[in-house]
Design brief:
By secondary structure, the chain is α+β, with helices and mostly antiparallel strands. It is built from 26 helices and ten strands.
Length: 643
């Protein structure tokens, strides 16, 4: 229940209504009222905002009570999401009556849509917490008051309280009790983004040596970054905030004479661990990152804006891309934990250090097969395909992967799509494929098949999406990043989702502008000209064996769609920057300057209303998001469907 300090207005009727509407069984998933759920999601978001405000009009509410409303509300939604995610395995227990598994498929769709609504809500509530906690911290200015805020954050394992409180590690000197609570909260919530603050604290001679040692011991729990891979397939990767050599030096610099005997032993133990890590890499069977441990063979499911998220009869996809955890010993003798995936571009299978790869997505989860033998077989497969030749399959077929079952994979060409990598690893085990992928997906109805064909794509028999693995009764969720909300991504996703909806409803017009027509003709000519094919493939960054005609068709659509979606989100950001009064960067391009000018002209009334206090910043954000969603959707309807 909500804290009594919140007063009588904290009846939380929308939260209660949402809890009542969320399905609790696989049978209820079949008939869930998604429209009602989405309506309640909006009502809960509004209610939490209104009841966690800290304003002069709510003098009876302390900053801590306002934060408690925000944290408790999100905690309740997170619990609902956990309950729904737990239903994913029970769907396959429903009758599989021929010819179309209607009960299972309806339940799967209900699961995806319910989970998507709750993921969206918990991400929005976390986003709103940033302002609530920031406002509270403004009023709670001394260490003792902020310590109470951290205690509240610890009760709810709040990532927002943890991240913002990390600033106080350096803002307040010699506050050991407060600092210890901050560090414990960072460790409990796995806030790797706060690692730079922790490292600066370890290096801060103003702080007591015992607390600096304690902070250093937190680093392995958050995930000590690994050295970059030698000769990576992917380049321009971000540098780690620290490497094992640097961490070893930080620990070695801790003054041993300022520690008691027990502290000195802990320092020596940590120093020995750091010495092994810098010389040999990760020698354990796991790697800790973001508050949990990943193991070789784990499956990584990620969510990012994608035009393919609603192409099948089981949608929306909760995840849009996949990778696998592998352990690899490089030419430098360092053992690393990496993520392996099959991207659309490129001609080799890349591997990227786990902690760097996870920076690419706002929401992800790791799945693991508890069967050690099966997990080992999948781990071996993931390691063997690193740096192999790759060819992204624009027809999303599985037969080429199936041909590699129970065979050595070293040096083999990996001709598949992203989720096909999971199938490839599963086929190296003795487990029936259906236990990993119990629900094969089918292309959406209406005009979807014909429209997707116009894009040069098709979904092969037995297609697997990144979300399909969720329905496996074998796979256990071992790590789940708290969903996060980004209004720019909301704009992009809404454009992509509208595109998928229209693909099913009406025929797509041909993409016949001169540039795409020329690209298509060139690709067709390359079929009879190997040198031209090689040149085109090299320029496009794909394997030379790629079907360049299909790739040209797909690119004609996807690149244009990306341009529309990204332009809509960039225009939103320009409008928001103007609303906040943020000055344009000195090196702004003419396009960025034009966006800023247009944003001010198009949203002058909203900007003026906020500055005059007649409209809240939140209401302004919601209005701007809706405006640019509508603008992006109108642009894609005009471009692809002739409206």
């Amino acid at each position: 229940m909500l804290p009594a300090a919140c007063g009588p207005q904290a009846a939380a009727a929308p939260l209660d209504d949402l809890a009542e509407a969320v399905p609790r069984t696989a049978e209820q998933l079949q008939t869930v009222d998604v429209a009602r759920l989405q309506k309640l999601v909006g009502e809960v978001d509004d209610w939490v905002y209104e009841n966690s405000l800290i304003t002069a009009g709510r003098r009876g509410r302390s900053p801590l009570a306002a934060v408690a409303v925000a944290l408790e509300s999100k905690s309740r939604v997170d619990a609902l999401l956990d309950e729904v995610l737990a239903l994913r395995k029970s769907i396959t227990s429903l009758p599989a009556a021929p010819p179309d598994d209607a009960a299972r498929r309806n339940a799967a769709r209900g699961f995806l849509r319910t989970a998507a609504a709750l993921i969206d809500l918990t991400g929005r509530l976390r986003y709103g917490q940033n302002d609530v906690v920031r406002n509270a911290r403004t009023q709670l200015q001394d260490a003792a008051s902020r310590e109470q805020l951290v205690d509240l954050g610890a009760r709810y394992r709040s990532t927002v309280v943890a991240t913002q409180s990390a600033e106080d590690l350096l803002a307040f000197a010699r506050q050991p009790r407060y600092h210890e609570k901050i560090l414990r909260l960072l460790a409990a919530t796995g806030q790797t983004a706060s690692l730079p603050s922790v490292l600066r604290f370890v290096d801060d001679a103003r702080q007591p040596a015992p607390m600096r040692l304690f902070a250093a011991e937190i680093v392995p729990l958050l995930g000590l970054p690994q050295p970059p891979r030698p000769n990576p397939v992917e380049t321009n990767l971000p540098d780690p905030v620290i490497q094992p050599d640097g961490f070893y030096n930080l620990v070695e610099a801790l003054p041993k004479d300022q520690l008691d005997d027990e502290g000195a032993k802990r320092r020596d133990t940590l120093l020995a661990w750091a010495d092994v890590r810098r010389k040999k890499g990760v020698t354990d069977d796991f790697y800790r990152v973001a508050g949990f441990a990943v193991e070789p063979g784990d499956w990584l499911l990620m969510r990012n804006p994608s035009p393919y998220n609603r192409f099948t009869d089981l949608s929306p996809g909760l995840f849009t891309h996949v990778g696998m955890v592998a352990a690899e010993t490089g030419a430098d003798g360092i053992r690393r934990f990496v993520i392996v995936d099959v991207p659309e571009r490129g001609d080799r299978v890349p591997a990227v250090n786990v902690e760097i790869y996870l920076e690419r997505t706002l929401h992800y989860c790791f799945l693991r097969d508890p069967d050690r033998k099966a997990a080992a077989a999948m781990a071996k497969a993931a390691a063997e395909v690193i740096d192999n030749p790759s060819l992204f399959d624009l027809n999303f077929r599985n037969d080429r992967v199936e041909a590699l079952a129970h065979t050595p994979l070293d040096g083999k060409k990996i001709h598949t799509y992203c989720a096909g990598l999971l199938l490839l690893s599963a086929l190296q085990t003795e487990i029936p494929r259906e236990e990993y992928f119990p629900l094969a997906e089918r292309q959406g109805g209406g005009h979807m098949v014909d429209n997707v064909a116009k894009m040069g794509l098709s979904l092969g028999k037995g297609f697997l999406s990144p979300s399909g693995a969720l329905f496996s009764p074998r796979m256990k969720i071992v790590g789940l990043r708290e969903p996060m909300y980004d209004p720019k991504r909301e704009v992009e996703e809404a454009v992509y989702d509208e595109f998928a909806r229209l693909l099913e409803e009406r025929p797509m017009q041909d993409q016949g502008d001169w540039f795409n027509a020329l690209r298509l003709k060139t690709a067709e000519a390359a079929r009879a000209n190997p040198l031209l094919a090689q040149a085109l493939a090299s320029a496009a960054g794909v394997n030379a064996e790629t079907d360049l005609v299909a790739a040209a068709k797909a690119a004609a659509v996807v690149e244009t769609l990306d341009e529309i979606a990204l332009a809509a989100s960039a225009n939103f950001q320009a409008a928001r920057d103007a609303l906040r009064g943020a000055p344009p960067p000195a090196d702004a391009t003419p396009l960025e300057q034009a966006r800023r000018t247009n944003a001010i002209a198009e949203n002058g009334m909203i900007i003026q209303a906020v500055r005059q206090g007649r409209l809240s910043p939140r209401a302004a954000r919601l209005a701007l998001v809706q405006n640019y969603i509508e603008a992006g959707q109108a642009a894609l309807r005009e471009r692809f469907f002739g409206e």
